[in-house]
Amino acid sequence: MRTRKRRVRDAFGNWCDARDLEGQTYEHLSAEEFALRREEMRKRQPKPCKLPKRGAFDPFQLIQCKAFGEERQEPFRVIVCAEALVVVDVHAHVSMGEVIGLLGGSYDHEDKVLRICAAEPCNSLSTGLQCEMDPVSQTQASEMLGVRGHSVVGWYHSHPAFDPNPSLRDIDTQAKYQNYFSRGGAPFIGMIVSPYNPSNSSPVSQNTCLLVQEETGSSGTQKLPYKFEYQISLEPPDLTEVMRRAEWVVFKYRHSYGSVPMERLYRSDSSLTCLEKMLTSLRTILSEIPETETVLFQIEALFITHFIDKQETEQASGSSSHLHEQFKLFPAHTFTTSELMDSSEVLDYEEMCSNEEQSIINASSSDKGFNSSSSGIQDVAGKEVNIPLVPSAESEY
């Protein structure tokens, strides 16, 4: 049987091991003197700070991009195909959580031209404040771009309801990927799309194409984002590839928590629904390319048929009823899933959606869909969606 350790109190009345007090001298104080001494020691101890100190590092702080000019010229030109912009814009419109994906293309070393030809949406590991690219999905997207003959030349993500400026975390991520891909001699850019920024009164989404470069100043070396003035290629988009990616987006996000109600008004001061707003933004991207109405009608039919709840569509007869009248005039542009996907892929999507639907039903007992404050969307008057400005303390890889 082990002997019990002898415990005594120290000079402050705290229990401790008797050995800890060996070799110490004691000062005999009266009760009043002891209380004063203890109070002085408490005042000397620093109080824990609950709020971050001024100037503390905030990884979600947004940084304004600098412009290339005479002092620092563009290291290369950027040309973006409309196909890539359409896919990125469609992906960004469907979720109030951040979305993410890869950009594919090629780089001409002689002419110093980076050409972005395709965008491949990826699954994201979202925490509400930021999202990171799922490694398995990233590998699959890279392989898909390689099959089409493209190299991975960049990545994109969305800032759903705030400015398309990179956060400190985005800048750090961009710098790491630039260093990694520069080993092969090809540049690597980042793209940020903001579809529902309250400060943007235009229905056209805001896009930022950026590169991170180091600058040495009085405070040391800093990584600063520089914004490209990219050019949109007049090359017609591949309808099959656009619809394949749009279909992936629709079937993934139509039952996801935080998906955007596309049949509702996207702003309180606008008569456009979220779907109409997205189509307006896409039409602007394709404005200089002839014969692209087929792409828009295919995307519109896909969303009305598979993304928007049919019961809510029938009730929302005021703002979106004319969409259905348009399809009566264009029966040749109707979209069926079997045209662009095989039956096995459709079954996989349906199985995935059914599993997500069960999780949404379980969560609905505490969170009432888009009325929850955590989703960032408020239902106003049954039809309107006011998307608040998300604070900068909120993004990628």
Short description:
InterPro entries: JAMM/MPN+_dom (IPR000555), JAMM_MPN+_peptidase_M67A (IPR050242), MPN (IPR037518). The protein has 397 residues and is an alpha/beta fold.
Describe the structure.
The structure is a single chain. The chain has eleven helices and 15 strands. The protein is elongated and about 95 Å long. A hairpin with a 3-residue loop joins strand 14 and strand 15. It has a nine-stranded mixed beta sheet with strand order 3-12-11-10-9-5-6-4-13. It has helices at 31-44, 82-93, 135-147, 168-181, 239-253, 274-285, 293-307, 310-315, 317-329, 337-340, 343-363; strands at 7-9, 15-17, 66-67, 77-80, 100-108, 113-122, 124-126, 131-133, 151-158, 189-194, 206-217, 220-228, 231-232, 378-380, 384-386. It is 35% helix and 20% strand. Mean pLDDT is 77; it is low at 317-354 and 356-397. It has 397 residues and is an alpha/beta fold.
What's the CATH C level of the domain at 66-314? Alpha Beta
Number of helices: 11
- How many strands? 15
**What do we call the CATH topology of the domain at 66-314?**
Cytidine Deaminase, domain 2
- CATH superfamily (homologous) name of the domain at 66-314: Cytidine Deaminase, domain 2
